[in-house]
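Sequence, please.
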C-alpha cells in the first residue's frame, strides 16, 4: 500500500475538512489480493435491511461482516489493520497518537452494497477515525454509492443542508474521515449490476475506547 507524501499539508487539510481523499492508496497487486479476500469472506456476510433507530431512523440496506468474524477468517486483513507504517501515517494526519480499537466487532468491517437501492444511511461513528478502502465501486457518479458528508458538522440533519459534499471513489482509492464528528452516509445504488465493496478500518486515540451508540452491534453482530 503506497503512502502519500506531503504529510503536513495533508494533515492541515484533514483538520479543516474532516475528510481526506487518498486516491490510488491500494496498489494494483494489493487490490487484486484484497478483492479476492473480500469475495471469499462475502460467503459469511449477513444481509441487513432495517432502519437504525439511534441514528434518526436512517436506512441500512447492505450486506456486512463484522470484525470479530474477519479476525477469525482473514489473517491478511487483520495484519493490514495493525500495520505500523499505516498507523504511523494516521497518527501524523490526526496530529496525535492513533491506536487500534479494542472492540473486535467494530475494528475492521466489510460493507457490501450490491442491490438497487442499497445504502448505508446517515450516521456518525463511535471512534474518531475511519479509513475506508474501496475494493469495488460504481464506475459513474450518477450510479450512486457516493460518500456524502458535511465538513465540520456532526448533526445528521446537516446532510440535507447546503455545504454537503458528494464524493465518488474508484476501486483502489481510500479516504480518511473524522467519523465521530462528521455526519456521513452513502447514496443508494441506482441500478442492477452495481457493487460497492469497502473495508472500513476504525481507529481511535488512547483515551477513547468506549462505544457511544449501539449502531455497530446492530449492524455487524
Amino acid at each position: 500500500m503506497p503512502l502519500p507524501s506531503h504529510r503536513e499539508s495533508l494533515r492541515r487539510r484533514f483538520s479543516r475538512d474532516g475528510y481526506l481523499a487518498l486516491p490510488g492508496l491500494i496498489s494494483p497487486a494489493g487490490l487484486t489480493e484484497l478483492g479476492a479476500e473480500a469475495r471469499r469472506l462475502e460467503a459469511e456476510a449477513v444481509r441487513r435491511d432495517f432502519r437504525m433507530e439511534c441514528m434518526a431512523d436512517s436506512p441500512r440496506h447492505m450486506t456486512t461482516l463484522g470484525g470479530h468474524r474477519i479476525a477469525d477468517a482473514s489473517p491478511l486483513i487483520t495484519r493490514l489493520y495493525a500495520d505500523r507504517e499505516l498507523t504511523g501515517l494516521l497518527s501524523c494526519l490526526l496530529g496525535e497518537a492513533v491506536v487500534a480499537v479494542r472492540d473486535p466487532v467494530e475494528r475492521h468491517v466489510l460493507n457490501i452494497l450490491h442491490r438497487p437501492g442499497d445504502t448505508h444511511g446517515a450516521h456518525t461513528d463511535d471512534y474518531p477515525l475511519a479509513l475506508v478502502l474501496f475494493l469495488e465501486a460504481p464506475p459513474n457518479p450518477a450510479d450512486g454509492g457516493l460518500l456524502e458528508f458535511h465538513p465540520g458538522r456532526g448533526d445528521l440533519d446537516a446532510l440535507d443542508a447546503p455545504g454537503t459534499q458528494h464524493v465518488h471513489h474508484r476501486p483502489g482509492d481510500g479516504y480518511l474521515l473524522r467519523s465521530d464528528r462528521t455526519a456521513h452516509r452513502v447514496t443508494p445504488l441506482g441500478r442492477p449490476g452495481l457493487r460497492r465493496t469497502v473495508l472500513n478500518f476504525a481507529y481511535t486515540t488512547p483515551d477513547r475506547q468506549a462505544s457511544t451508540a449501539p449502531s455497530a452491534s446492530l449492524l455487524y453482530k
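The chain is about 25% helix and 30% strand.
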